[in-house]
Write a structure and sequence with these properties.
Length: about 350
Amino acid sequence: MSPLVDHLGKAKIQQLLAAMGSVPAQEQAVENAMPYDWRDPRYLNADQLNRLAAVMSQAAARFGVILTRFFRHEFDVSPTGITQHFAGDLLRFVDPANSYCATFSPEKGPSCGFLAITPQMTTTWASRLLGDTEIAGDGNRSMSSLEESLLSDLVAAVLDAFLASLRPHETLRSDGRLSKGHPNIPFERTEEICKIVFRVKEAGKEESSDITFVLSCSRLAALVGKPVAAAPRTTPQELSQTLMEHLQQMPVTIQARLATAKIGFQELLDLGPGDILLLDKPIQEMVELTVENRTAFRGRPAQSDGRYAILIREGPPKQEETRTGAQPQAGRGQETPAPKIRTEPRKG
């Protein structure tokens, strides 16, 4: 290496670059980007999610009023997460089997979503509703009928407040009482699902709990201003035409059946090159073209462009003939073994 190059430090190099009118690019801070999960849908865009968050903030305020009225203590409720998922991944982001759930549905139709709270949260609330303000809930214990009734009233009020935030775009109603276990909702595996989580915290206390709502993203489209394409209406005639066009494009294998012959096993063993095998069909009869072992056409053997061909003479057989079977033609007796004619003696 040249001694001149050895003495070129960083400062000297930058001076040379500045003299030539070239300056090094300033280093840019790398922004932290959220990881992209291909398993999650993008039914609602960022702007629509912000609109939904504003609506859910208003719903959270109503939740706080309801909890304060039931427990006679002030509660702070706020939305902490709105995420989108595919219904097939439901168990990846919520555990309804180990939660208490309340479903909701339209006036006519199956359930389309549910509210979920943890077992510990249900027993804590049930104890609080009975006046035991200092007893922590045990998620493993079963609740009494009175506790279930009181808790169902509270959850129903919270659920009604949530459903009211969706009106007038969606008119949904609660399906009934709170129950433990996986809710029976006919989600399609590829259906986009929205999970909305609210944090519930009593004033003056550190511990908090969550209320989770899960429903189809399509139920939120009108609320956040997402245009929804109308379902196409297909008439029976259009459906029939589409089906016929599809059938016309399907490949079909057609076979040409010349004739058959029935011989003994020993005669089969004796067959060899130069032998002539007589078939059971007179030469004046036509060749059958079959599709799926059913006769479709009849015709005469021919050739075209150096290839075997069939010149079609008759269309499909009549329905009665197909059902009863072809009658034997006059002059033909019962099927007999085909004779074998040897044209020349076999050597050896």
